[in-house]
Amino acid sequence: MADAPPIGEILVQPDQLKERVRALGRQVSDDYAERDLLLVGVLKGAMFFLSDLMRNITVPCEVDFMAVASYGSATDSSGVVRILKDLDMPIEGRHVLIVEDIVDSGLTLQYLLRNLGARDPASLEVCALLTKPERRKADVPILYTGFEIPNRFAIGYGLDHRERWRNLPYVAALAEA
Ligand code: IMP
Ligand code: MG
Predict the structure, then answer these.
(1) pTM beyond 0.85
(2) What CATH number did the domain enclosing 41 receive?
(3) Cis bond leading into 44, ω under 30°?
(4) Which H or E run includes 109?
(5) Contact status, residue 145 vs residue 27, Cβ threshold 8 Å
(6) Number of domains making up the chain
(7) What is the distance in A from the centroid of ligand 1 to the CA of 108?
(8) Most Cβ neighbours (<10 Å): which of 8, 20, 28, 123?
(9) 151 is in which domain, residue-wise?
(10) Residue 122 counted as domain residue
(11) Which of 104, 120, 139, 160 is catalytic?
(12) Is 123 inside any structural domain?
């Protein structure tokens, strides 16, 4: 059946997401209390995480977005990244927190850190909802992590497989074909 939902094992339940995102919001609020925070959401995967995280941040902050595409197959990025949408605002002198859905090989994030770092922000850190440490090819510094997940392709809560399944309220593994 070609159209059976490819939803496998649930990796992170909705209440775990809610609780962890709330804790991350508290941590970010503490750390950036005296700083002018700019959240940079990476489209499209980070959209739900970013909006939930931002509602749990209690210090003044702004938001901007980038959209990037990394050349590669449906499940493997190559590290060659193309900017589809750049930031609206300059970030020179700003305290920038990149908000990512998932760090897999780390190649996309490595590119983003170099690209945004070259614009002279006052600080540049990363908050990633999910990380797959087993798959890492580039050593990238992640200050805030939601959950470490096993080496499975994840869908839901913003994460897609071929643009579908972002609307699932939990994070699940893509079912094996
Ligand atoms: P990386 O460059 O390999 O770290 O992967 C970068 C991007 O690929 C992430 O920001 C996601 O958009 C996407 N990606 C990587 N792993 C997954 C996954 O398990 N599910 C959905 N998207 C993924
Ligand atoms: Mg992404």
Answers:
(1) yes
(2) 3.40.50.2020
(3) yes
(4) helix 107-117
(5) no
(6) 1
(7) 8
(8) 28
(9) 35-165
(10) yes
(11) 104
(12) yes
